[in-house]
Each structure stands twice: as C-alpha cells, then as structure tokens.
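Chapter review: from sequence to fold.
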Amino acid sequence: DGLRALMHRFWEQPLGILDFGYASFPFHRAVFDAIARRDAKAARDMTMILLETIRADLLRGAAERETGSNG
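The token string follows.
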C-alpha cells in the first residue's frame, strides 16, 4: 500500500509540476495515426517529438526543484 500511495502522489503532480506531460498530448494521437497508416517514419518522428516534450518537462521540474520555485 505504501508504494501504491507513493505512485498515486507522484502521478497527481509529477515533480511538483501541475501541467507535467500536457504538451505531449497532441503527439499521442499523431503517433497513433501514423501507426494506423503503417507509416513507420512518421510514427518514429512523432514519438521523438513526444519524448522531447517529456524531456523538457523533466528538465523544468529538476530546475524548479533546485531553485525551489513551483510551476
């Protein structure tokens, strides 16, 4: 139960960022659409963009933790 509660708290506000992952939402659909079209290159390209949005959020969260600010 402790691990479950920890994971629940994390996903409520990952790294203290209220909008964590929001920028990636449109790319989920783009990846799905590319896969549905069997367009491997487009699926890969959209996946890389999606991952970059998550990377940016992780870097933002790390920076905010260092400075003590809260986004």
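Two observations follow directly from the output. Residues 27 and 48 are 9 Å apart (CA to CA). The chain has a mean pLDDT of 87.
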